[in-house]
Amino acid sequence: MASERPLMVQVEDVHKRFGPLEVLKGINMTVRKGETIVIIGPSGSGKSTLLRTINHLERIDKGRILVDGQLMGYRETAHGIKELPERVVARQREMVGMVFQRFNLFPHMTALGNVMEAPIHVRGLKRRDAIQQATELLNKVGLGQKLASYPHELSGGQQQRVAIARALAMEPAVMMFDEATSALDPELVGEVLNVMEQLAHEGMTMLVVTHEMGFAREAADNVLFMDGGVVVEEGTPEAIFDHPRTERARAFLRAVLQSSRDER
Question: What's the half-sphere exposure (Cβ side, CA atoms, 13 Å) at 174?
């Protein structure tokens, strides 16, 4: 049963403020091993900020975040929590693979080189083993014929699939996707979503921020609807999409559905 799986991510009463603007207002969330949690909501609702707090790219103002039982970014002391040194945080981040809107590939490296780089220099993997791993991962994301291609020779969808392979190469406990398809031309979105769906079906623990409602319905174990820095609703895809409880969620889903119709 899903409820018997170990907890991989625990977000407890997390608050985040940028100056006078409170972006996260007491977020609570759990992700169990092998689950895919999809976070939806309007722009500015705090979705991307939430992901960035999980791997401590953004410091939190209150609360706790644990990944695989480790308190992220801080240690607890008798006087409260204290931020960890950056080198320790960097090691913690190895547990969390992150795929952003922009691919951020090294332009002077081939697809193979981009995927090999971190395992060699961060994990200490031998070059021969890194080549084998990178080749397997690029085959996994459908780019086995593009090992020697440079980023400028690849489409946006292909570059994003290299970015996914690069994140997987660190063997993370959790994969996070922050609007991974939003910078792509519409005809390239499907090839990236297919890889993400494959990972979900294989049991990768995933946290996904997306506007792709079809992916959320098909791949998610649970969906969180955020608005105004809070989780307004959460539940199974069926519950959220077919039986939303709040007018705010109903209005958002109506708008998204209408936008999809207009694009056709």
Answer: 29
